[in-house]
């Protein structure tokens, strides 16, 4: 007889191990698997394990009210989760995965969680999990859901916090490009479904009092690209702030702004000098 597969949701494990206080050995017998298999699933779902005295270690904790009041950090977090977070509502699970440990450390601190950031096997990525019904419910109420790529729409962010929200989107799935040394060009781009990107373009146009930028079609996904002065304005609004931004992308944004300022300033000074000479 081959090995039996252990199929047990987090909710069922909670019921058996926490609510009914069954031992790992008893749960294993009920499901025809080993005690080690049950233990691995408890760890996988971040369910605290009792010691030999029947006492728990540190129970997973989170601030369940982080999405109750608008702040710059909340707006950034919504943007980042919209772009790069992974929700599994049936498990009440929110997963963060990134090569940037500092970013996950900020996420962990913001949620006031005692859960660890883990290094992923056979990868240079780190992961951080949250299991909370109230947090998942709050995110769903703002339009963030499972398998969101082709259906998500922008969260209802107040104008005051929109640039923080956009910062989360760019940090999560955007791109900032610095062109060759002799160029003052800079660009910033976002990918998403057409309705989402169109709404973001219209919101940016409204705040900058300009015409909406037309996205480039890539099948079901479209690419929204800003260059030159508009890109500079967006980067200034998004990254010239003390609110958290992904360090790697903030460094790129500040480098591009500095380079653009130096090159344009030098060109203007050069042109002004030529005009003075001719006169």
Topology overview:
Layout: H1 10-19, H2 24-31, H3 35-44, H4 72-84, E1 86-88, E2 93-98, H5 101-110, E3 118-119, E4 126-131, H6 133-141, H7 162-173, E5 174-178, E6 186-193, H8 194-208, E7 216-218, E8 221-227, H9 228-239, H10 247-278
Antiparallel strand pairs: 1-2, 2-4, 3-4, 5-6, 6-8, 7-8
Summarize the structure.
The chain has 279 residues and is of the alpha+beta class. The protein has helices spanning 10-19, 24-31, 35-44, 72-84, 101-110, 133-141, 162-173, 194-208, 228-239, 247-278; strands at residues 86-88, 93-98, 118-119, 126-131, 174-178, 186-193, 216-218, 221-227.
Offer a few descriptive terms.
single chain, 279 residues, alpha+beta, four-stranded antiparallel β-sheet, 47% helix
Molecular structure report:
This protein has helices at 10-19, 24-31, 35-44, 72-84, 101-110, 133-141, 162-173, 194-208, 228-239, 247-278, and strands spanning 86-88, 93-98, 118-119, 126-131, 174-178, 186-193, 216-218, 221-227. It is an alpha+beta fold. The strands form two sheets. A four-stranded antiparallel beta sheet has the order 1-2-4-3. α4 packs parallel to α7 (162-173). The N and C termini lie far apart (96 Å). Mean pLDDT is 86; it is low at 273-279.
């Amino acid at each position: 007889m081959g090995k039996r597969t252990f199929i047990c949701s987090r909710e069922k494990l909670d019921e058996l191990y926490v609510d009914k206080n069954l031992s790992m050995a008893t749960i294993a017998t009920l499901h025809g698997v080993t005690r080690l298999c049950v233990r691995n699933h408890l760890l996988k779902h971040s369910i605290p394990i009792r010691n030999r005295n029947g006492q728990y270690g540190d129970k997973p904790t989170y601030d369940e009210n982080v999405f109750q009041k608008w702040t710059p950090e909340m707006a950034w977090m919504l943007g980042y989760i919209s772009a790069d977070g992974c929700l599994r509502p049936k498990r009440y699970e929110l997963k963060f995965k990134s090569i940037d440990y500092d970013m996950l450390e900020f996420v962990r601190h913001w949620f006031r969680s005692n859960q660890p950031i883990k290094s992923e096997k056979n990868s240079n990525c780190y992961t951080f999990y949250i299991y909370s019904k109230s947090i998942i419910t709050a995110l769903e109420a703002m339009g963030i859901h499972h398998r969101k790529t082709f259906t998500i729409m922008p969260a209802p962010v107040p104008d005051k916090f929109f640039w923080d929200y956009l910062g989360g989107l760019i940090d999560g799935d955007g791109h900032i490009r610095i062109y060759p040394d002799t160029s003052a060009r800079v660009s910033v781009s976002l990918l998403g479904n057409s309705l989402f990107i169109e709404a973001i373009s219209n919101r940016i146009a409204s705040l900058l009092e300009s015409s909406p930028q037309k996205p480039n079609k890539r099948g079901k996904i479209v690419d929204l690209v800003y260059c030159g002065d508009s890109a500079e304005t967006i980067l200034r609004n998004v990254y010239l702030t003390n609110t958290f931004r992904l360090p790697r992308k903030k460094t790129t944004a500040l480098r591009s702004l500095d380079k653009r300022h130096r090159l344009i300033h030098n060109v203007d000074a050069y042109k002004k000098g030529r005009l003075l000479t001719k006169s």
